[in-house]
Write a structure and sequence with these properties.
It holds the Pfam family HTH_PafC. The protein is an alpha+beta fold. It is about 35% helix and about 25% strand. It has four domains: about 5-80, Winged helix-like DNA-binding domain superfamily/Winged helix DNA-binding domain (Arc Repressor Mutant, subunit A); about 90-130, no CATH class; about 140-215, SH3 type barrels; about 240-315, no CATH class. The strands form three sheets. A five-stranded antiparallel beta sheet has the order 7-6-5-4-8. Strands 10-11-9-12 form a four-stranded antiparallel beta sheet, with helices on one face. A hairpin with a 2-residue loop joins strand 5 and strand 6. Helix 2 packs across helix 3 (about 40-50).
Amino acid sequence: MTAPSRASADRLGRLLNLVPYLLARPGIELAEAAAELGVSEKQLREDLELLWVCGLPGYGPGDLIDMAFDGDRVTITYDAGIDRPLRLTPDEALALVVALRMLAETPGTANRDAIERTLAKLESAAGDLTSAPVEVRLPGNADRLDTLRGAVERRHALRITYYTATRDELTERVVDPIRVLVVAGRAYLEAWCRRAEAVRLFRADRIDALTELEEPARLPGEVRLHDLSGGVYQPGPELPLVTLRVGRGGRWITEYYPCEDVRPDGEEWVVSLRVADLAWAQRFVLGLGPDATVVAPADLVERVRQQAAAALDQYS
């Protein structure tokens, strides 16, 4: 969510709670109300001015929220039906409980005490929802993560069988573990890969098998760890640049993947993004179906054309 839309969402929530708040405190001073609501008096006055033009469909006399001012005091005289504080639905409350439980389970999370206090209050308010059959755990089973962490602590090498999604293949390799970390709710092993002769990130849930070896981890003299402040996937200029023309049904990719350029062109968008592998890009484009056409590179255009033609041949 962008800063302007987040500010709008915050203000909407504040406005929905403002009417029942003022109804319970007729004649309250604006300064006192602003202090309790955590906003400036100027912001509160602006919110009240906006409430004055809100109300029920028809938006005529008797439909809009109304209030009376007595100096610096305000009283709601017509609430337009907004007479109760905003309440979470059962689904919303359960979603918050699940998210907080996940956050509490994440290693290295700061302010854990605050999270647990908030979770306790929410679970108390949610009542029977806390007994819902929901189990929260980090991606990758606990045994796998324990083995990974143990290998890091004991500084032992690992033999793993790993699924590489970009190439849709399983590979076996020996790695020297460096650390286990969690990014965006997913657990990763960062390790020196002897096959690639470089530091690599391995998603824990894509490690199909692993064995801790007796031999010690052998790290080069100096290794450069990944900077994950901007996320796991940070495409560099050395990766292939793919340009697609996408229709309305394919625009979601601009929100899901980091794009270098997005340019509207009539009913379509021209989107450029870097990919780790053209084979992955080929499967990705074919998965988008009629909502995407490859513009460049020429190699990808030909790959997609050939596979589409082969698929059509199966129908003849």
